[in-house]
Design brief:
This protein is an alpha+beta fold. It has 4 helices and 7 strands. It has a 5-stranded antiparallel β-sheet with strand order 1-2-3-6-7. The chain has a two-stranded antiparallel ribbon with strand order 4-5.
């Protein structure tokens, strides 16, 4: 097993809509194993495939009861309202109180291809919604209210380039 670098805000892969997993082969099993290791190491409570640069509709999560995986998941019911100080491994170090539905029902399939339904409230409900958003190319900043969004954009724009981008820029400059 190995870990992936986690893609961060500004990486276009985070804006792409993922496609369903059609074939649960060895590459998917390995991907899931490595994603679970990446999530635990981060550490985070959830990780979507797009966050490691893979355009497949799957995510892993672990809110303390051991790791789980959902393929081709969709939220089919939601109700209530809950405010939670939400963060994202792809927007590191920033948290905002975000209002979303409290209870959700998620339908998808497991690694054996069986149809599954997961009901979640509070933290589990939040993780299911946050990861499903990732698979649709949506980041948590789009769930902020207009004032929060303005503040968030100010912070994100003022953040310096990450080391990889710096390096890429220097290489580009070096080539003239
Ligand atoms: Zn996230």
């Amino acid at each position: 097993m190995s870990t992936f670098p986690i893609r961060t805000y500004g990486d276009p892969v985070l804006r792409q809509v993922t496609t369903n997993v059609e074939n649960i082969d060895d590459s998917i099993i390995h991907l899931v194993e490595d994603m679970i290791e990446t999530m635990h190491e981060a550490p985070g409570v959830g990780l979507a495939a797009s966050q490691v640069g893979v355009q497949k509709r799957l995510f892993v999560y672990d809110i303390g009861d051991g790791p789980s995986v959902v393929l081709n998941g969709k939220i089919t019911e939601s109700s209530g309202e809950w405010t939670y100080e939400e963060g994202c491994l792809s927007v590191p170090g920033l948290y905002w109180p975000i209002v979303r539905p409290n209870h959700v029902l998620l339908e998808g399939i497991d690694l054996d291809g069986n149809e599954i339904q997961i009901e979640g409230s509070e933290l589990l409900g939040r993780v299911l919604q946050h990861e499903t958003d990732h698979l649709d190319g949506i980041l948590l900043i789009e769930r902020l209210d207009p004032d929060q969004y303005k503040e968030a954009m100010k912070i994100l724009r003022s953040q310096t380039l990450n080391p990889d981008q710096e390096l890429a820029k220097r290489r580009l400059l070096g080539k003239g």
